[in-house]
User: Fold this.
Amino acid sequence: MNKDKKRMMKGYRLDTKDDFVFYLYQLICRCYKMLKKQDLYLDRLSAYLSEVQSKNVIIATDKIDIPYNDYTDFLALLSHVETGLLNIIGDLQDSSLSYYKFRNIVAKRKKKGILHFEVSDISEEVLDILKRFNSHRNFQNHIPESLITSEAKLMDTGKLTEIELNPCAIWFHEFCTLEFVDDMYQSYKDMNRQAYIVFNSMKVDIECLLGHKFVIIDIPIKVSRGIEHLAPVKLAADIQGLH
Assistant:
C-alpha cells in the first residue's frame, strides 16, 4: 500500500448518515465487550472482598492485611479494561475512534448547520463524563511529573520518609490492607457506572439515526478464534507505520 493510500486510511470520514451509523456501531460493539469484561472483574473483586471480610468479621478493613500480589493481579485486569474504556469513550485525537470525538464532530456540524440529519442532543451529565474521561485518559497515558513533585513536597513536610539515593533501595510490598483494595474497587465501580451512562447515550444516538430500537444480543461462538482475525489489526498497524 502506498503512502497516499495509507494517509487516507488513517482516519474514518464521517460524511453520510450511514457513515455515522457505522462509526457508532463500532463504538457500541467495542464498548459493550469492555463493559462486560469490567463487570466480570468487578464481580470477582467484590466476591474476594466479601470472602476476606467474612473471615475477619470484627476487624476493620484498615487492619486486615492481604497479599499485595492479590491487589496487583486485580489491578492488572481492571486497569487493562480501564485503558480501553477511557480511549473508546474519552479520546479526542484526530485519528482516534471515540465517542467524545464523535459527539464533538456532531456538535460542530450542528453549530455550522451542515449536519443534514437528526442526531439527538446529549445531556450535560454525559458531556461532563466525556470531559472527565478525557482528562483521566490523558493522565493515564503518560507519567506526569506531578507524581514526583508531589512526592518531593510530602518528603519536605515530613509526610513521606526521605529516600537514600545510593545504595538504591527498591521496595516491594508483600501485603496491603483490605481498605486499600476496597478503595480500588469503589473507584472502578464508579467508573463502571459512568461508562454505562455514556454507553446508553451511544444507544440513544444510534436509535435516533436508525429511526427504530437498537437491540444487542450475545452470541456464543464454539469455533476457536484464529489468527486470521488479526488481519484488521495488522493492516491498521501497517497504515500507522508500525511495520
Notes: The longest strand covers residues 65-67. The beta strands are 65-67, 175-177. The radius of gyration is 22 Å. Residues 17-55 form the longest helix (39 residues).
